[in-house]
Amino acid sequence: MRPANMSIHTLLENLTASYGLATVLVLGTLISVSLLKTDSLQQLTFQLFIYTLIDAVYQNCFSPLSDIPGPFLCRISRLPNCYRLITGLQPFWLRSLHLQYGPLVRTGPHQVACARPEVWKDVMTYKVNLPGKEHIPHFGRDEAMYIIPPNGVHHIHSVHDDAEHHRIKRTIAHAFSEKALREMEPIVTKYVDQLITRLDEAVDGEEKGKVDLVAWLNYVTFDIIGDLTFGASFGCLQDSTLHPWIATVFDSLRAACFLGALGHFPWVKAVFMTLLPPSLKRIQSEHQNSSSKKVDERMASGSERPDFMTLLAAAGKDGNGLSREELHSNATLLVLAGSETTATALDGLLFHLCHNPAVYKKLTTEIRAAFENYEDTTFETTHSLPYMNACIEEGLRIHTPAPTDITRMAPPEGKMLMGHWMPGGTKVSNCMLAIFTDPDSFMDPLEFHPERWLGGQERERFEGDRLEAAQPFSVGPRGCVGKK
Ligand code: HEM
After folding, report:
1. 0.85 exceeded by the pTM?
2. From the CA of 222, how far away is ligand 1's center (Å)?
3. Domain assignment of residue 345, given as a range
């Protein structure tokens, strides 16, 4: 329940927000320095020690979140979560915590993780607050966790303000309508055909039968999204290698994990960003410049071909569209958000099909019964294949491309979640991997069973599954634009 003396709680929460185990690190340093026998330093060390102790007791026993179970270290410090984030093992760690502690787990002094389908409705779905309309508080973005593009202009994913995000999303959504996607189909098909040809060559080549499918799937998705965005592909399929532009993107993903962890310590992040070596800053801005140049060249070409840029430019004709700088930022984001995710979804699905011969056989039988020729397979005709669609849903559930947690922050007024009061500023994270493989939502959650997505008798064994738990594209105003 919401505590009556909310203001005292909020004050205490805010006061303790910047402290935790991290203070112990500072303390360690101070203790070593204080061995130099400077009285004032010893005093400061002692005061900090007492403060840390009080903070730990408060976080553990008296914080409004203290009734939510979780490991002791997580209750008093943000470090365990940040460490897992940096190592890339956070989703597995969160899943094991949920299995041990239940659907709500305290993962930091001011952070809880939720592994129930309710999180989609209660946290991710909300009414967008627009100027002049009634303001309804909702869980929002944690600004510190997002990185502003090097040109300093927000893209759809980094922008914090509801109204600004709404404006950008409305423009970008034009490029993802049913009609738009149908018009872009020939561009997609061109690269899929090229993939099949190149795979045939690779299989018949020197290393007969040995093909790194993960690499090839990345080649094809980066070529497709690159072409739709910049008007020219990266030539990955042609050269059988990832373009250097993409290599930089992969490197920046690792850096983003690190910066995401630093986002839990805003003051450390601020110092870190200031001290970033000039060489690193140069790589960042060169990458942004090269993307901006590609966008400028594409716009200067005046091509009317139906692709992202044509549609984004058309959507902006009413004056509410994206500025050139916003196009630069969003183009890079679209390539990043659309390529690696799709490749990962496909390689996960292929992995499970190869490991489940019965499913593979049933799928190929369905496809071969529906089509006589490869050319007959289109966006529209493949829509109506129930088993293929069930395989895709199950692939996205069990091998979700974005397995980590999406974090939201309780509004300053605080908000309820699953019967618990989340004070203002509490971070609520929903780990995709943990939710999609929660044994309370799915029968045999770690097994690949497309049948759970079918109707009728085939689904009987999975009758109790809560399919709405699996939302690989997220939901609500910040959900994926590329879902279709
Ligand atoms: C299987 C493939 C994909 C998966 C699993 C996926 C997943 C997601 C998820 C989970 C989010 C929400 C992230 C958050 O709230 O922090 C998201 C956002 C987004 N995705 Fe996707 N995505 C996929 C493909 C694509 C494609 C093909 C595109 C475009 C070419 C795309 C563009 C975007 C954009 C622009 C956003 C930001 C939306 C916003 O902030 O309003 N995604 N995606």
Report:
1. yes
2. 15
3. 143-469
Q: Which of 341, 389, 405, 475 for mutating ligand 1's site (highest number of atoms within 8 Å of CB)?
A: 341
pLDDT tens-digit series, residues 454-469:
988 889 999 999 999 9
How many whole angstroms separate alpha carbon 86 and alpha carbon 93? 12
What is the whole-number distance in angstroms between the Cα of residue 232 and the centre of ligand 1? 22
CATH of the domain at 364: 1.10.630.10
Closest among 467, 475, 405 to 433, alpha carbons compared: 405
Residues 156 and 23 in one domain: no
Here the tokens at position 394 are 């199950």
Burial class, 374, CB count within 10 angstroms (exposed 0-12 / middle 13-18 / buried 19+): exposed
- Mean pLDDT (whole number) for 309-315: 86
* Ligand 1 binding pocket mutation candidate from 480, 481, 483, 484 (most atoms within 8 A of CB): 480
Looking at 42, 62, 82, the residue that finishes a domain is 62
362/149: higher pLDDT: 362
Residue 347 burial (CB count, 10 A): 20
What are 90-102's pLDDT values in tens digits?
Answer: 999 999 999 999 9
Question: Is residue 2 located within the same domain as residue 150?
Answer: no
Q: How many domains does the chain have?
A: 2
- Measure 482 CA to ligand 1 centroid, in angstroms: 6
